[in-house]
Inverse folding.
């Protein structure tokens, strides 16, 4: 029995990936445990140029959840390749380069640079605001999403996974548009748009008014969305959203996920991803499951 997974022809030692924005570039967590025990890591969100991120408060806890307004603070693609990538390549782990952008041109130029590296997968983050379209995220409108995925597909031979936003008008139609444009796989979901107010200061908690909500509170909705997308498209899926233990991970796999990503749970417990990977192995042994394919997508209907 083992929890190996083949995803887009790439072998993962287990289905657990550290989610983008919650694991940095792995160095800090590697001080506590060898991150090579995980199946993969999705890098901190990258943009073509360095970004300093948002001002004001960036993190706010809610009941069973976490709101963030980081603003994609990152060193930029070039500096990532020069300073962070060598460490990741030294680890026995599959790397997903999470790529964002404020315009199609930025996505394309970033993808061209990443295409020259040994990273096997680009995870295209289409939840970024499209500056040229008044700030509306690429991941809200199917046509705009189709355009950016198609353009990136043309400049890279890497496996292309598109990370879907739960704030899309129709996430199933969004998934179909991305696959039609050339996505090899999909990851879902990103954070939910949410609002928190400081009643004493009488103003929103965040400078940008709204922020992204993640954590256990979104899991049932994220699970339902993955289930719906699985019925709408025929490509491998990565499940994301409120996964805090191995039971959550197994739920996503049973709903149709090939792999899963652990996000906010890494902040609560630095060993969360490791524990989930171990828990999946123990569950398989206890339930006499020799391969995760035996339970993947068993929820029909």
């Amino acid at each position: 029995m083992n929890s190996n997974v083949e995803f887009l022809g790439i072998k993962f030692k287990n289905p657990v990936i550290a989610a983008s924005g919650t694991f940095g570039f792995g160095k800090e967590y590697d001080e506590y445990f060898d991150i090579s025990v995980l199946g993969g890591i999705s890098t901190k969100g990258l943009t073509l140029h360095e970004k300093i991120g948002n001002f004001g408060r960036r993190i706010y806890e809610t009941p069973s959840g976490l709101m963030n307004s980081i603003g994609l603070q990152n060193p930029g693609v070039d500096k990532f390749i020069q300073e962070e990538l060598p460490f990741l390549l030294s680890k026995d782990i599959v790397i997903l380069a999470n790529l964002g952008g404020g315009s199609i041109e930025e996505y394309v130029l970033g993808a061209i640079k990443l295409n020259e590296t040994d990273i096997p997968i680009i995870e295209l983050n289409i939840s970024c605001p499209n500056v040229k379209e008044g700030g509306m995220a690429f991941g809200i409108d199917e046509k705009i999403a189709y355009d950016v995925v198609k353009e990136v597909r043309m400049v890279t031979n890497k496996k292309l996974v598109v990370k879907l936003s739960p704030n899309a008008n129709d996430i199933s139609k969004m998934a179909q548009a991305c696959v039609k444009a050339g996505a090899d796989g999909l990851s879902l979901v990103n954070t939910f748009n949410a609002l928190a107010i400081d009643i004493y200061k009488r103003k929103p908690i965040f400078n940008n008014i709204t922020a992204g909500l993640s954590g256990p509170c979104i899991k049932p909705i994220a699970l339902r969305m993955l289930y719906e997308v699985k019925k709408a498209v025929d490509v491998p899926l990565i499940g994301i959203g409120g996964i805090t233990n191995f039971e959550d991970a197994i739920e996503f796999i049973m709903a149709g996920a090939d792999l899963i990503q652990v996000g906010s749970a890494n902040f609560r417990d630095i060993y969360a991803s490791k524990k989930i990977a171990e828990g999946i192995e123990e569950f398989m042994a206890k339930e006499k499951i020799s391969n995760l394919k035996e339970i993947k997508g068993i929820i029909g209907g």
